[in-house]
Amino acid sequence: MRPVAVGDLAALVAINDAATPAVPVTPPDEFASLVADSTLALVAERDAVPVGFVLAMVPGLDYASENYRFFSARSDDFLYIDRIVLAPAARGAGLGRELYGRVFDAARARGASEVTCEVNVEPPNPESLAFHAAMGFAEVGRQATKGGAIVVALLAAPV
């Protein structure tokens, strides 16, 4: 694990976009802005090749995400995971848990009381819901986004 570098962006955009519909397709310039706005931006590597990443944000940003805004209206004491994505070949090897461990470490260091995120329920993402439940996340809300095309479970876990 290491901080995201500019040279990683093309590989991370490809990993991100391959995970649709679990995460939105994101143009490279928009992805670069997300990384720049993130309080925590880490890349997971295997043999020096990026295979995943996490982007997390603190409250108080001018970020248009409907899900981030839900958590911002609810609290000012969280670390929000905007997205965490692993390439299919990297799944099941513990990298997701390691990335989440880093997020929880960062939340503790900031004095945040919870880590927040969302998971699609329409279209369904049962693997992610099960993973988050195993990591201690509980549903604190549900909302339709993208004009009703996607419904997400809004999740929080104590730090």
Structure notes:
This protein has 159 residues and is of the alpha+beta class. The chain has a single domain (2-158), classed as Gcn5-related N-acetyltransferase (GNAT) (Aminopeptidase), CATH 3.40.630. The protein contains 5 helices and 7 strands; from the N terminus they run βααββαβαβαββ. It has helices spanning 9-18, 28-37, 66-74, 95-110, 126-134, and strands at 2-3, 40-46, 49-57, 78-86, 114-122, 138-145, 150-158. It has a 7-stranded mixed β-sheet with strand order 1-2-3-4-5-7-6, sandwiched between helices. The longest helix is centred in the middle third of the chain and has 16 residues, at 95-110. It starts with a strand and ends with a strand. The mean pLDDT is 94. This is GNAT family N-acetyltransferase. Keywords: Acyltransferase, Transferase. It comes from Protaetiibacter intestinalis. Residues 1-157 form the N-acetyltransferase domain. GO terms for molecular function: acyltransferase activity, transferring groups other than amino-acyl groups.
From the structure above, extract its key features.
single chain; 34% helix; alpha+beta
Can you give me a brief rundown of this structure?
By secondary structure, this protein is α+β, with helices and mostly antiparallel strands.
